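One-letter codes give the sequence; the fold follows as tokens. An example follows:
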Amino acid sequence: MHDIASARRTESAPSLRELSEELLLHIVGDITNYDGSRDINSLKTLCLVDRQFQRIATPFIYELIYTGTHNPYKFVRTLLECPKLGQHLKFAVGLRAPSQNVR
């Protein structure tokens, strides 16, 4: 006797691997915080899954750089070490020249 529950157990659930890369790109692009900003920590974690997810998530990490609360020198250092990441940059907010005490 086959009931619905046993039938569901024998069918495999679809996995993320079965989704097209285009659909994964849209899903990853919607990963945001409660305030609508990019959830960078989740995107960084997603990069650790495998190369495919790293390739998909990396542009979203680097497309908008807000340095108001982050150290811009770390960002510049990262771009110097891996210039290819600069191709993903679309917007930079809060970049300012270092302050110098001029007398």
About this structure: Residues 15 and 100 are 54 Å apart (CA to CA).
